[in-house]
Specification:
Layout lengths: L11 E4 L4 E2 L8 H12 L6 E2 L1 E4 L2 E4 L1 H23 L4
Parallel strand pairs: 1-5
Antiparallel strand pairs: 2-3, 4-5
């Protein structure tokens, strides 16, 4: 058996404030549906930070990118502390 290495997959990440999504909950009654439609027409539905992909490109909201960077920093610090004894 011959072991082969496949080339790494590259994904381009773009930060955009336009990477948002509407809430996913659906109105339960006709009255609620009408209210949501009116609010949407007035631009009062708040969109949440989100991420989506187009091909090999990932579009991410800046708030999510900041949270991801913070999480990666915590993981890196924890690994450095366990391996090198940094911070003890």
């Amino acid at each position: 058996m011959i072991a082969t290495l496949e080339p790494p997959i590259s994904v381009q990440i773009i930060e955009s404030v336009h990477a948002t999504a509407e809430p996913t909950a659906q109105p339960r009654t006709d009255d609620m549906r009408e209210m949501v439609d009116r609010l949407r027409a007035l631009g009062q539905i708040r969109r949440r930070p989100s991420a989506f992909s187009i091909g090999d490109t990932l579009i991410v909201h800046p708030l999510l990118m900041a949270a991801m960077r913070d999480r990666m920093r915590q993981v890196h610090d924890r690994m450095a502390e366990s391996v090198f004894g940094v911070g003890r």
